[in-house]
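REVIEWER CHECKLIST
Item 1: Sequence provided? yes
Item 2: Single chain? yes
Item 3: Sequence as submitted:
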Amino acid sequence: MLAWKSHIDYAGLKALSGSLISAIKRVSNPDFQRISPAYHLQLIKNPIMSLTRDTFIYRGALVIGLLPSFFGLNSLLRPEASLKSVEFPVPTDPESRKLVFGLMRIYGIRNVVVSFALTLIWLTGNKRFVGLGLLGALSMVITDGLVSKSVTGGGEWNHWSFGPVIGGFVAGLFGWF
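Item 4: Structure as written out by the authors:
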């Protein structure tokens, strides 16, 4: 912490160019250190990145943010296998099959885009933004579980099992523990 003293070397101030930084530097305080302009600009650009990048919770948030892309790619490339993994019935009628596979591809691209957005938010280095992004992912998980329960009468815990994990990361990112 900087401790300012009331004694200022006025003779020394006259010798300097008169800039504010030079005047502050002449305060009779041996603990005062000047921050270089380049370092100051770096702090302005990424004020939170240096504090959070190396934490377990922050890196874990990236892993949580990447998970939807794996489910999304599975839904895009293998809609039938993805339907079976979430315990949805695979229709046998060709028209119904075409419709359901199309919806699975929409579900897949949604997951890929959400994962991409969460990764971009993570790259900002702001813990609060990452936590808010994960809250959006939490709402997606809850909604998917509710839809699964209403359509098949079960399978909601395939989605809801991610809820407590995401909630824990959100709490950590918000500093609640």
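Item 5: Key structural point noted by reviewer: The chain has two domains: 10-34, 49-173.
Item 6: Recommendation: ____
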